[in-house]
Amino acid sequence: MGGSTIDYIIIGCYLIGIAVYGIVSGGRQKSVKDYFLGSTKVPWWAVCFSIVAAETSTLTFISIPGLAYATNLNFLQVTFGYLIGRIVVAFVFLPAYNKGELTTAYSYLENRFGIKTRSFASIVFLFTRTAADGVRLFATAIPLKLMLDINYPVAIVIIAIVSLVYTYTGGVKGIIWVDVVQMFIYIGGAVIAAFFLVYLIPGGINTVFSAAEVSGKLSIFNFGFENGISGFFQQPYTLIGGLIGGAFLSMASHGTDQLIVQRLLTTKDLKASQKAIIGSGVIVVIQFFIFLLVGVMLYAYYGPTGMKTDEIFPFFIIKQLPAGITGIIIAGLFAAAMSTLAGSMSSLSSSTVLDLYMPLTASRKDEQSKLKLSRYITVFWAVMLILAAVFFMNSSTAVVELALSISSFTYGGLLGTFLLGILVKKARQEDALAAFMAGIFIMITVISLKIVAWTWFTIIGVAATLIIGGLLSVLSNKERIK
Question: Which residues does 466 contact at the CB level (< 8 Å), separation at least 6?
């Protein structure tokens, strides 16, 4: 399909410039704490923007407009749940985390239950994050493949290497400051695309709304009761399913996932981290609305086509926009992607080093040796993400739903274990581990049978983990009394 010379220059300059900025803004790291926690001196507003950028991968940039193009605005119901979930994280999880000297999300589990629970949770995170962000890396390769007419593996490697450069050198502090810039770039790219769509569609915004209204594209709220109970639970985007599913998914991703918790631990105190997490929820609702609206505009412009929904927005960007503008928006797409990928590399590396390696060997190496090892492990996880992306590139499922479904396999058990520690005071490590594993197996069964939509996955896993963990704690306490 190709692009113009000016587009390539803009994208090339952006990729080089953002890598250099990440290296410079990260400063010089002297310790593992500097590398993974930014010395806990990052302002809350920067962390807020960084959280939004980290969770807003290419999935949002290309798959959410594609989802609205194919359906309607019902996905917005899920984002309202995202905000509710973050408020719970701010006032339930973060105060619990703030009581101790935590280095990762899973340090809390060691303090509450023991080292085995921390290690198991970390291992589950490593596998889940690698798979889910492998999907996101593949999604990023779609427009690069279309522009350069290269194969997917080459496109995947290019994006991963650029992200690795400033992650390797700048650490989490460099990642956060790059994220601040990249959030405004990709949102700006979406807004520019929306303006061009209005300009290119005969009749402008009036045509957009009239075409969307006729085809039902403007529907936001869906109660979903028209197909009975089984039909209700098999619809992903109902009001109740969206609010509950979005809330529990957000509680899991922002309260127990190292990708986000790592950023929250870089703030100076509890109040700062609470402002960062709640503020990110408000921004996310707004930004999802923008991307969904772009999808509605794409439908008004193209009408029904035989293209994959994940390709419709990249196709418009490359084929219809003028030279220069295409380069800016593709740079925005890469901004969305690299913020997530860099954060993923850092969080995978931090969890490996801080949760698995250092508890066993902390006294055997000096600080510089541990810092060097941390960087090598970052490279290792970059390679693992590339391999995961190649594995998922032949999937026929919309990438946004594929990534969220992968996370849902383990999010329920993970969130349920955290809640067990907070809510059930008598639960022991054996109870937590058994409940955690049971929650994962139950979710594998539920997802394999396809009896409910993905928005219900996390709450089912949480309920199963809490019920099993609570019952085991009661039984174990009775045994101790005897």
Answer: 416, 419, 420, 423, 424, 435
Domain ranges of the chain: 5-393
Q: Which residues of the chain have pLDDT under 70?
A: 1-3, 38-40, 58, 100-102, 362-364, 395-405, 479-482
- Please identify which residue in the block is written with the tokens 């700006």: 188
Those residues with Cβ within 8 angstroms of residue 260's Cβ, 6 or more apart along the chain or in another chain: 51, 54, 55, 253, 254
* Ranges of H-type helices in 352-428: 358-361, 367-392, 399-423
pTM value is: 0.87
Rounded alpha-carbon distances, angstroms, from residue 143 to 67, 135, 332: 17, 14, 12
Q: What is the pLDDT of residues 188-227, one digit of tens each?
A: 889 999 999 999 999 999 999 898 888 889 999 988 888 7
CA-based nearest residue to 162, from 40, 28, 46, 20: 20
The angle formed by the CA atoms of residues 117, 122 and 128, to the nearest 5 degrees, is 125
* Interaxial angle between packed helices 239-255 and 270-302, expressed in degrees from 0 to 180 and rounded to the nearest 10: 130
Q: Does the domain formed by 5-393 have CATH 1.20.1730.10?
A: yes
> Which of 107-138 are b and which e, b meaning 16 or more Cβ less than 10 Å from the residue's Cβ?
bbbbbbbeeebbbbbbebbbebbbbbbbbbbb
Q: Are 301 and 197 in contact (CB under 8 A)?
A: yes
- Sequence-distant (6+) residues with CB within 8 A of 174 are 22, 23, 24, 25, 26, 27, 166, 167
Q: Is 23 helix (H, G, I), strand (E, B) or coil?
A: helix
* Dist. CA 362–CA 412, nearest whole Å: 31
Distance CA 323, CA 157 (A): 25
Both tokens of 4, joined, read 């113009």
Q: In 3D, which of 443, 385, 388 has the Cα closest to residue 414?
A: 443
Q: What pLDDT, in 10s, does the model give residues 216-266? A: 899 999 888 887 787 888 888 899 999 999 999 999 989 998 888 888 988
Residues 144 and 311: beta-carbon distance below 8 Å: no
